[in-house]
Hints:
46% of the residues lie in helices and 4% in strands. It has five helices and two strands. The radius of gyration is 20 Å and the shape is elongated. The termini are far apart.
Amino acid sequence: MSGQTINKGKSAVLFSRNTSDEDRLAVKETLQIPNEAVNDRYLGLPVHVGASRSGTFSYLKDIIWQRIMGWKEKMLSKAGKEIIIKAIAQAIPTFAMGCFDLTKGL
C-alpha cells in the first residue's frame, strides 16, 4: 500500500548446501533475484554463521588490532591509550555480541 518495492539488484537469496542447482535456479527465477548470498554481511555482521565461529568472527579481532596499531603511532600516554581502548575498542564487538554468542577464545 505504501508504494515501496524491493530492490532486486541489491537483494540476495541464501540456500542450504543441500539445495540442488535446479531448485536454486527455479527459486531465483521465480523471485527474479539473480544474486546468491554466500559471504555477505548485513549491518556489518555475517549473514551465515557456520560451525567455526572463531573463523567467522575473526574479522572483529583484526579490526580492533588495526585500530590499536594506528594509535601506537600517535604519541599517547599509557593512560590515554587505556581510555581509548576502553571507550572505542570495547564498543566494536558489542553489536556482534548482542546478536551472536561469541566464543571465549575470541
